[in-house]
Design brief:
The protein is mostly helical. Helices cover 64% and strands 0% of the residues. It has helices spanning 2-15, 24-39, 43-59, 65-71, 74-84.
Length: 102
């Protein structure tokens, strides 16, 4: 499964060239997203595979926690910290629904 996914991703990377004012990375992201939208790929299953790959890289000392936190969007690290009860995750978060403390 990993080899097939790696091969498919490599093919997407090869065809992803900057165009219409978008960077190569933006075109690649759009092509990957299209797999989910058009081909009805399960986001939950993709997330599970992604988590397993990250864990493997972490366990093999190929990725540190700080590198991972720096590579993913802040809203994801905030969500992970919140649901795992990380102490500093609760600092500065609003205590009332709607995002304000007013």
């Amino acid at each position: 499964m990993d080899r097939a996914a790696d091969k498919e991703f490599a093919a997407l990377k090869e065809t992803g060239v900057a165009k219409d004012g978008c960077t190569t990375e933006e075109v690649l992201a759009s092509n990957v997203y299209a797999k989910f939208a058009r081909d009805r790929v399960s986001k939950a299953i993709a997330a599970q595979y992604f988590a397993e790959r990250l864990q493997t890289r972490y366990e093999n000392n190929e990725l540190t926690a700080d590198e991972l936190r720096g590579a993913i969007p802040k809203y994801l690290t905030n969500a992970i910290d919140y649901v795992t009860g990380a102490k500093d995750a609760l600092d500065g978060l609003p205590t009332k629904p709607g995002g304000t403390d007013e």
